[in-house]
Design goal:
This protein is α/β, with parallel strands linked by helices. Helix content is about 35%, strand content about 20%. The protein has 7 helices and 8 strands, in the order ββαβαβαβαβαβαβα. It has an 8-stranded mixed β-sheet with strand order 1-5-4-3-2-6-7-8, with helices on both faces. α1 packs parallel to α2. It is globular, with a radius of gyration of 15 Å.
Length: about 190
């Protein structure tokens, strides 16, 4: 599948971790995403997310505020921001970091575009962390893709007891309940 990009493709040669989750994130979820992004940046990890509201926005903003590098994989053509409010953030990412889309200019934006975006994020990442997600969240497409690709999947401990969906993934060998950032660093041999 062709990918369209703007920015610095060299970021893909570094360790990359996706931070994803609910668009309707709780304040605690956004704070967890921001803290995780900050701690990964401190170890030189590139943070990937999907530039959606909620968890994605928190992860991108925290990465930028921490002086780290981020990659946004979007479900629209490069020239279109969704949500519109993230237009300035999207521009900041393509100017100094990396913006990726599987959708050519002029492609219509449909809800079905976003699972494809999540599969690409899984493929580009060494690991994915689901911070917060409902039982029908689009982040679960990324979880499935991680398992198919043999990528690490981390599910934050706060989600495991409160939702049904984690049970579908926890029996896989590359799926871990995340309690500390060091677990990711250890799995990726970055400790």
């Amino acid at each position: 599948m062709p990918l369209f990009s703007a920015g610095d493709p060299a970021l893909l040669s570094r360790p990359c971790v996706s931070i994803v989750g609910s668009r309707n994130a709780t304040p605690d979820g956004r704070a967890r995403a921001a803290r995780l992004a900050r701690e990964l940046v401190e170890r030189g990890v590139v943070v990937i997310s999907g530039l959606a509201r909620g968890i994605d926005t928190a992860a991108h903003l925290s990465t930028l505020e921490s002086g780290g590098c981020t990659i946004a994989v979007i479900g629209t053509p490069l020239s279109k921001a969704s949500p519109v409010q993230n237009g300035p953030l999207q521009e900041a990412i393509w100017r100094k970091h990396l913006l990726i889309s599987p959708f050519a200019e002029g492609t219509q934006v449909y809800p079905g575009n976003f699972p494809q975006r999540n599969r690409i994020m899984a493929a580009l990442s060494d690991a994915t962390v689901i911070v917060e997600a409902d039982d029908n969240s689009g982040s679960l497409h990324q979880a499935v893709a991680c398992q198919k690709l043999g990528r690490w999947l981390f599910i934050m401990k706060s989600v495991v007891g409160s939702r049904q969906w984690p049970r579908r993934f926890l029996s896989a060998k590359n799926t871990v309940i995340l309690e500390r950032t060091e677990q990711i660093l250890y799995a990726l041999d970055l400790q």
